[in-house]
Design goal:
The chain is built from 5 helices and 40 strands. It is α/β, with parallel strands linked by helices and 350 residues long. It has a 12-stranded mixed β-sheet with strand order 8-11-14-17-20-25-28-31-34-37-39-40. Strands 9-12-15-18-21-26-29-32-35-38 form a 10-stranded parallel β-sheet, with no helix packed on it. It has a 9-stranded parallel β-sheet with strand order 10-13-16-19-24-27-30-33-36, with no helix packed on it. It starts with a strand and ends with a helix.
Length: 350
């Protein structure tokens, strides 16, 4: 599908410099530009490529000033923020590729399930008894939706998503392939014979609106009550969220992190990759946790930045790390001092 620079400029409320009638039918990175493609410049590190790109259209921010001549074949569209405008275009492009509404004949839908209008249900999807699927939901092939599950409007489940019974998914959410919602929490109790007896996990998972969950991330159901992801939470791939965890609004968590049971994370937090957080903690709003940190204590002060394992304040961590890097040198100095002291002691007569 082709779009003109005039159409794109109108969509982004941008200003066109160059040919308003040039057409594009693909998107590309600025360093890989080709005729008929649209690109963007947001990172100054890539500025040099705009002077030699073969792309037909480039989106730039209003403050971009060309230091030399641009290619004669390039049309510029100036916008307030090039990155967010290009993201808007990517979303529009993505919408064009969405499947048309319909229910594949190879899917299995329980007679008591309620399916809204304009839904897409792919091949070999299973939807259980009493499930409610609101309008505009897309469920791709080989996904499982258990009994009593609720899925809000315009939410998308990519191939192979599993949602266990009684879980609640809000509107405009995205669950990527391999996501498992509502698996049992890790609850076991040792008996008198030192064998582990499973504690039934009878709660559920509640995911509010505008949440995105990356591929192969798992979110366990609560023992009692609910494991909760509040509005706007974004989870990367390969994350483990344990039973009864609660994550506040607009918190983002990078890949391979794990949060143990009953921990409460505030809103607006940023958690780096491979972070481990032990159970039954409270993490204050706005906390930032650097990658590979291990958190074993409450974070009570808002907007704190912590790092390390065990984690502590980032400035103290940086000071400590300077000392750690110099440790071999300091150990050598101590050995030299010990040697000198021993020589002095041997020179002292009793």
């Amino acid at each position: 599908m082709k779009f003109s620079s005039a159409q794109i400029g109108a969509m982004l409320e941008g200003t066109i410099e160059g040919n308003g009638d040039v057409f594009v039918d693909s998107l590309c990175k600025i360093e890989e530009g080709k005729p008929g493609a649209l690109t963007f410049l947001a990172n100054p590190k890539y500025t040099e490529y705009i002077y030699e790109t073969k792309a037909s259209i480039a989106i730039v921010s209003n403050d971009f000033k060309a230091e030399k001549s641009l290619p004669s074949t390039l049309t510029i569209i100036r916008v307030s923020d090039a990155y967010s405008s290009f993201a808007k275009l990517l979303e529009a492009y993505n919408q064009l590729k969405q499947p048309k509404p319909g229910i594949d004949p190879h899917s299995k839908i329980a007679s008591t399930a309620l399916i809204g209008t304009d839904c897409f249900i792919g091949a070999f999807v299973f939807i259980g008894e009493g499930a409610i699927i609101e309008s505009g939901v897309q469920i791709y092939a080989n996904s499982y939706v258990g009994d009593g599950v609720y899925i809000g409007k315009n939410t998308r489940l990519y191939a192979g998503v599993r949602i266990y019974a009684d879980c609640v998914i809000g509107a405009l959410c995205t669950l990527h392939s391999g996501v498992i919602i509502g698996g049992d929490g890790f609850g076991f109790n040792p008996n008198s014979e030192n064998n582990y007896v499973k504690v039934p996990q009878i709660g559920n998972v509640i995911i509010e609106d505008h949440v995105e969950v990356g591929a192969n991330t798992t979110i366990d159901r609560a023992t009692l009550g609910s494991t909760i992801l509040r509005k706007g939470v974004k989870l990367d791939n390969l994350i483990q969220i344990a039973h009864n965890v609660e994550i506040g609004e607009n918190t983002v968590i990078a890949a391979q992190s794990g949060i143990a049971g009953s921990t409460k994370i505030g809103k607006g937090c940023m958690i780096g990759g491979q972070v481990g957080i032990v159970g039954h903690l409270n993490i204050a709003d706005g906390t930032k946790i650097a990658a590979q940190s291990g958190v074993g204590h409450d974070i009570k002060e808002q907007n704190t930045i912590i790092q390390g394992s065990p984690s502590f304040g980032i400035m103290d961590y940086k000071k400590s790390y300077v000392g750690f890097r110099k440790l071999p040198e300091l150990m050598g100095q101590i050995q030299d001092l010990q040697k000198q002291l021993k020589e002095l002691q041997s020179q002292i007569k009793p």
